[in-house]
Design goal:
Strand 2 and strand 3 form a beta hairpin. The strands form 3 sheets. The chain has a 4-stranded antiparallel sheet. It has a two-stranded antiparallel ribbon with strand order 5-6. The chain has a two-stranded parallel ribbon with strand order 7-8. The chain is globular, with a radius of gyration of 17 Å. With 219 residues, it is an alpha+beta fold.
Length: 219
């Protein structure tokens, strides 16, 4: 984006949080690239330990999805709060299948298992979190040029130590994208620029607040 790219605040969805931390200069490009690589390796190893998956759930309140997941034996949790009425759940294959069955009974428009190889943003990623924590703690985190709204906490953060800590817990915690965007808007954001291919996040932002302006900056 060059030196002209000076956002007032940044956020990234899951892996995109590392990109956001490069954009606000918490991480150097080189450090960000290394963490992306180490994150992928750690997550792949965790995926091989237990059959696990994720499923998209449409048309139910967050609290309903959370309640049903809590009723299911085994590991299944709300993993991605993408926008109102659109969540992703994550956990063991059997638990996710059972949760999808119950969610459909409760009126979900869709509860569909996704073609992924693991239960990302769930307790099943704990082995990955431990491994990635070592890499994150060995990485230099600088004071950013603007706040980041992290998936774990959803509020503005500028303290490098806190940013580092939150990034460690991201693998096992849910991606609270809805809440992050709501907090960015509450703090004055009116225009969101999605950096990268596609328009998925622009669509989610508009579903969270239809008055928000969204644009794309493909790189």
């Amino acid at each position: 984006m060059g030196d002209s790219f000076k956002p007032d605040m940044v956020a990234g969805h899951s892996l995109g949080e590392i990109s956001a931390l490069v954009a606000n200069k918490t991480l150097s490009f080189e450090s960000g690239l290394k963490l992306v690589y180490q994150r992928a390796l750690a997550m792949q190893e965790a995926c091989e330990l237990e059959p696990s998956t994720m499923a998209a759930v449409l048309g139910l309140e967050d609290s309903t999805v959370e309640s049903i997941c809590a009723q299911v034996d085994g590991v299944v949790v709300a993993a991605n709060y993408n926008c109102p009425g659109q969540l992703v759940i994550s956990g063991s294959v059997a638990a996710v299948d059972k949760a999808c069955e119950l969610l459909k009974e409760r009126g979900a428009k869709r509860a569909m298992v996704l073609p992924v190889g693991g239960a990302f943003h769930s307790p099943l990623m704990e082995p990955a979190r431990k491994k990635l924590a070592e890499a994150i703690e060995a990485t230099d985190f600088s004071t950013p040029i603007c706040p980041v709204y992290q998936n774990v906490t959803t509020f503005a953060v500028t303290d490098p130590v806190e940013i580092q800590k939150n990034l460690v817990f991201q693998l096992t915690a849910p991606v609270k994208w809805t809440q992050s965007v709501q907090n960015m808007i509450a703090d004055g954001a009116t225009h969101f620029t999605e950096v990268g291919p596609g328009k998925v996040l622009q669509g989610l932002v508009k579903k969270i607040d239809r008055n928000a302006e969204v644009t794309s900056a493909e790189v």
